[in-house]
Amino acid sequence: HLKGLADSEERTIFDKIVSKEIPATVIYEDSLALAFRDINPQAKTHFLVIPKIRAGLTRLSKSTEDHKALLGHLMYTAALVAKQEKLDAGYRVVVNDGVEGCQSVYHLHLHVLGGQQLSWPPG
Ligand code: 5GP
After folding, report:
1. What predicted TM-score, i.e. pTM, was given to this entire model?
2. Per-residue pLDDT reduced to its tens digit, 20-64
3. Strands 110-114 and 91-94, how do they pair?
4. Number of domain units in the chain
5. Which residues pair with 49 in a beta bridge?
6. Mutate-to-test residue for ligand 1 from 5, 105, 112, highest number of ligand atoms within 8 A of CB
7. For the domain that residue 28 is a member of, what is the CATH number?
8. Is 83 a domain residue?
9. Mean pLDDT score of the chain, rounded to an integer?
10. Cα(6) to centroid of ligand 1, in Å?
11. Domain containing 37: what range?
């Protein structure tokens, strides 16, 4: 994926992961959310949490009042799966939004990074 592609309503690679058209290492699934390992990990542990149905959320900045429960569920799921992954010493949750945020896949996703000492601020 090239970084900085414009927002689009096209299906993304994440829809194909949800539908199992392409494989992924899924580590958590419920009726609303899916968590799977990032193919290009930026930390010892790096997984993504996505809504199974994008529901207009190509990016976080597209969220409306109607998305509040789903957004809460995704954040809670990040914490639940972090616990499952034994990230007890801490971790980071990141949402990249848009071109300046370096978003590359336009299907909302939470990055969860951990399993090692992280640095701050990011580059
Ligand atoms: P973004 O750059 O949009 O914040 O994050 C997209 C993330 O999706 C990147 O970290 C990238 O490595 C990951 N990614 C892109 N394509 C795939 C894929 O086919 N499978 C998996 N597991 N991760 C992917």
Report:
1. 0.94
2. 999 999 999 999 999 999 999 999 999 999 999 999 999 999 999
3. antiparallel
4. 1
5. 35, 110
6. 105
7. 3.30.428.10
8. yes
9. 94
10. 16
11. 13-114
